[in-house]
Every structure is written in structure tokens, then in C-alpha cells.
Amino acid sequence: xxxxxxxxxxxxxxxxxxxxxxxxxxxxxxxxxxxxxxxxxxxxxxxxxxxxxxxxxxxxxxxxxxxxxxxxxxxxxxxxxxxxxxxxxxxxxxxxxxxxxxxxxxxxxxxxxxxxxxxxxxxxxxxxxxxxxxxxxxxxxxxxxxxxxxxxxxxxxxxxxxxxxxxxxxxxxxxxxxxxxxxxxxxxxxxxxxxxxxxxxxxxxxxxxxxxxxxxxxxxxxxxxxxxxxxxxxxxxxxxxxxxxxxxxxxxxxxxxxxxxxxxxxxxxxxxxxxxxxxxxxxxxxxxxxxxxx
Amino acid sequence: xxxxxxxxxxxxxxxxxxxxxxxxxxxxxxxxxxxxxxxxxxxxxxxxxxxxxxxxxxxxxxxxxxxxxxxxxxxxxxxxxxxxxxxxxxxxxxxxxxxxxxxxxxxxxxxxxxxxxxxxxxxxxxxxxxxxxxxxxxxxxxxxxxxxxxxxxxxxxxxxxxxxxxxxxxxxxxxxxxxxxx
Lengths: 294, 182
Ligand SMILES: Cc1cc2nc3c(=O)[nH]c(=O)nc-3n(C[C@H](O)[C@H](O)[C@H](O)COP(=O)(O)OP(=O)(O)OC[C@H]3O[C@@H](n4cnc5c(N)ncnc54)[C@H](O)[C@@H]3O)c2cc1C
Ligand code: FES
Ligand code: FES
Description:
The structure holds two protein chains of two kinds. By secondary structure, chain A is α+β, with helices and mostly antiparallel strands.
């Protein structure tokens, strides 16, 4: 099908974009990569009267690494984030996860910020933002504000971003030295939305785990981080007790998630799957150098 | 809507030629190519990004033309399947068509049956081989995982990717050889 008619706005600056959004309010939608929005328009699941196309806005495609965070601008495409060597060196998790987002042709156009603004429970990047204790930077004609991930995701496909606000960037927080990460998901075909997925960070000091957290794809309504410190901290990563600790972590994850059943998989299957994936990413994160495995 | 939709003059470079048409904002790039520019080589299957039949190269990178508006393609360079045969490494066959290495490989390996999905595979693989000129068979499979084909069962498309890599290398060696003797 084809989209319903709309008025196309092509602002050149963030200020212009904010002004248009203020004017069109709830009748408007931001168009970034369009890889989620255009299917919705084509199927006429939505028919906003105005589209604010930000693809021509100057200065939004940056990927900047600081000591604290990797800041990704609203026009940085998934493919650019996956390719960025600086971002990979600072936070390997970003590439590990982004390579699981859709297929290359979708990643060439879709944006990381758009996928966070879309807040699909099956999206990888909302889960990664949560695991990295990330922040969304929003701009409107009323001013600028920062929204921590806990306050950002309000429900499936729902955020606390207001209709007149543009997310100009997100910041993924970097982990302490000695932290390794890994990300894995299971999909019917590589690149499809995952049946279940999990990302972990594990901080190890002198061979002993000091902190560990996990975050999930497709098995929770909104991004949700589980602290695995209580089951893993104090364990020597190469010792015999590591295996048992990993089993307890997988059990904790199975208890934590609330998967739903749909035509692709039952709730029980997803729960089993995410437990097994947790086991694998934990083992991978402490064995592979810097969890350097996709 | 009662009023007539506003039209936008959209100018893009398609296969090296600047083309302009006046279209409504909601015109998908796929329909712009097919209906307004009469380039019907780009096929439309699902219109939600899943099948890959509509894949074109935007500034060299494969993208879904069904998920882009023509107005957003303003001033960009588009390559469609019609443009592949005029690549520098295309060669004229005995039957008179000019085929790029990927097209030649599809013909040799029976990489197509009905041909509906083929334009999307050809553009996707053309861009992929520029990034990875020597794929393994596993990588070839991965490279086409975003495109659907209802006919071939994919085996011959995987073979076509590998064969296209060979042909590309052969033609490059040939061109370099010519360069030396000339
Ligand atoms: C076939 C297919 C498979 C896919 N598979 C996956 C997958 O496996 N995993 C995955 O995570 N995603 C997947 N996607 C979606 C893809 O990752 C999208 O790129 C992403 O969800 C949205 O980013 P976008 O830039 O395309 O946003 P758009 O589609 O332009 O926008 C999406 C929504 O976010 C809003 N929005 C976007 N940017 C901003 C902003 N800066 N400020 C305020 N609001 C904004 C829009 O108004 C809209 O409501 C898939 C898409 C397709 C077509
Ligand atoms: S028609 Fe565009 S992906 Fe199917
Ligand atoms: S050849 Fe018929 S769909 Fe691929």
C-alpha cells in the first residue's frame, strides 16, 4: 500500500526542526531513517499530517567518544556505528549489538537514535542503551533536556519524548576498565527480529568478577537491566565455581524476564532461550579478548 | 484530503543521468523510479522492507527504495539494475547485452528463475563485493540474507556470488594487463 498524503518539512538546522515540531505538535512525526516509520505509513497504521524529515539537518551524524561516553547523533546510521573503530575501541558492545540489527541495506539507512526513539521491545539498541546506563538528549523550542534511560522507555513502542521534541543524540556510558561485554541473540534468520537476545557486561579485577549486568531483547516490555552481581561477584572467572555461578545467573535471568507468546515462539521457549544465551554470553565475555565476538 | 497535493520538484542522478520529476511528498523512491522515471527494472514486492526486491544503491550503498521517499533522495546518486550494465567492468556478450560481473555470474550459474527478486540481489551483491571481493561461501550466504527469492532455493544465488567475485577479479586482472601493454 501507499502512505496517505502528508506535508513534508525539510529543516536544515536543529532550531528549524524544533520550530516546525512546535508548530505541528501531535499532527507531526519525525522522519529519520524511515526503516520503521515508512513501513507503518505504507501499511497505513499511521497517517500523520506532517513529516519532519531530519535527513538534511546539519551536524547530526556525529559519533564522538569521550572518557565517559560514546555520543551518537540522530543521523548516524546503524552501519556507521558498526564501522566506527573509535566507538568499537571505547565500547565494543556497540558493534557487537549493531551487527544484529536487521540486514545491511536496512542498517545503511536506519539510525541508532531512531531505533531507540521507536522503542521496540525487539530492538537491540534500546537494550544496549539500558545496559550502558545511557541518556537521550532532547531538544525542543522550549529548550534542551536529558532523559536517563529509566525515564525514557514508557512501554512497548512508547517513550516519554514529547511530540515537539527531537532526540538529537544518545550517549552510551562507557564501562570501567577490566569490563568485558558480549551480545547474542537467536533469530530464525540472521538479521530478523530476535526471538530472544541478551547483552552482558562483566567487570573482572585480578581474575575475580566484581560487577555484572545483563539486558534483554524481545523478552521484556521495556528495556530492563538485571544486576547479576549477587550471583556472580566474588567468583573467579576461570575457577571451577564459575560454571555453577553461570548456571545461577541463567536461572536468575529466566526468573526476571516476562516473554510473550506469539506466532514465532511461545513464552516458555523464549524463556528457555534467553537462559541459554545468557550462559553463552557470560562464558564468551570472560574468555574472548574484550568479549570480542560480534 | 480535499485540496490537491502539493508537488515537489525532485532531482536525482540515476545511473549517471540527472533526472527531475514533480511528485507528491508521499511518492516512494521505488514508485518514483518505476512510474515517474519509467525505470521498471526495480521491482516492488512487499513495500515494508522485508523482501529486498526494490533494493537500489544510494550513493553506492544498498538501500530499500520502498522505504525512502523520493523527496529524501533529492540530489543523491541512485544506481538501479538498469545501470549495472554500464559499469566499467561490464562486458558485451555474444548476444549483444552488456553485463556486469554479477549479472554475468547469475546468467552462468542459473541464479534466477522468474527474475522478480533479481534486481535486488544484483544491486545488493554488487555493493557487497566492493566491500568484500573474496567472500567465502558462508559469507556469500550472509550477504544475501536480507533478500527473499521464492524460486531458486538460493543455492545458485550463493554460487553466483562466488562466481561474480571470480569474474570481477578476472576482469580487473585483464584491465590491468591491458594497462601494462598499452
Ligand atoms: C526488514 C526490517 C528488519 C528490521 N530488523 C530490525 C532488527 O532486527 N532490530 C532492530 O532493532 N530494528 C530492526 N529494524 C528497524 C530498524 O532498525 C530501524 O532503523 C529503526 O527501528 C528506526 O530507525 P530509523 O532511523 O529508521 O527511524 P524512523 O523509521 O525514521 O522512525 C522511527 C520512529 O522514531 C521516531 N524518531 C526517529 N528519530 C527520531 C528523533 N531523532 N527524535 C524523535 N523521534 C524520532 C519517528 O518519529 C518514528 O516514530 C528493521 C527494519 C526493517 C525494515
Ligand atoms: S518492496 Fe522494498 S523490500 Fe520488499
Ligand atoms: S527468481 Fe523468482 S523470486 Fe527469485
